[in-house]
Structures are given as C-alpha cells and as structure tokens.
Design goal:
mainly alpha, 0% strand, Chorismate Mutase Domain, subunit A
C-alpha cells in the first residue's frame, strides 16, 4: 500500500529521469557531431603534415571551458577532466588518421 506522498515522489522521480534521459541523448548526439568535426580536422592535419596535438589550442580550450563551467555553476575541475578525456580521444583519432594517410602514401603506385 502506498500513500499520496510516495506516489507524488515517484511521479516526480520519473519526470526527473525522463529529463536526464533526454539530456543524455542530446549529449551523445552533440559528442557525435563534435567528433565528426574533429575527424575533418584530423584529415586536414594529416594532409598538410600538421601534428595531431596542439598544446596551445588545448590550453586555450581548457581555460575557456573552465570559465564556462564556472559561469554555469559546474565544477571547473570536472569540466577540465571531461575535456581532457575528449581531447585525448581526438588526438588518438588524429594520430590514426595520420598513420592511415602515411600508409596509403607508402602503398600508392609510384609514377604513372
């Protein structure tokens, strides 16, 4: 047997969880779009022999995201950890793109 307060709490919990599920879906789609853009950056870097990592840009991004986090009342340390995780994955992708690009050059027919 339940009471009205428990039923109300369960209903509110369900609403919160539905919102969390929607936010999680939006985050996944936003990350997917971000990685589509960074893949294009990786191809551009590989094509022009640029390094996979850009420490100056990464530092700027971390400072910018820390400030955005503070403005949004989110822990800036958490925001930095999250961005560092994303950056590490982007660099891994860029290194793989560069390696794949180099391998294609090595196996391309010479002279035509």
């Amino acid at each position: 047997m339940t009471n009205d307060k428990t039923d109300a709490a369960r209903a509110q919990l369900a609403q919160y969880r539905a919102s969390i599920d929607n936010i999680d879906a939006a985050l996944i789609h936003m990350l997917a779009e971000r990685f589509r853009c960074t893949q294009a950056v990786g191809v551009l870097k590989a094509t022009h022999g640029l390094p996979a990592a850009d420490p100056a840009r990464e530092g700027q991004q971390i400072a910018r995201l820390r400030q955005l986090a503070r403005d949004a009342y989110l822990d800036p340390d958490f925001a930095e950890k999250f961005l560092n995780f994303v950056i590490k994955e982007v660099i891994r992708h860029h290194e793989q793109i560069a390696a794949d690009s180099a391998a294609k050059k090595d196996t391309a027919p010479k002279g035509a």
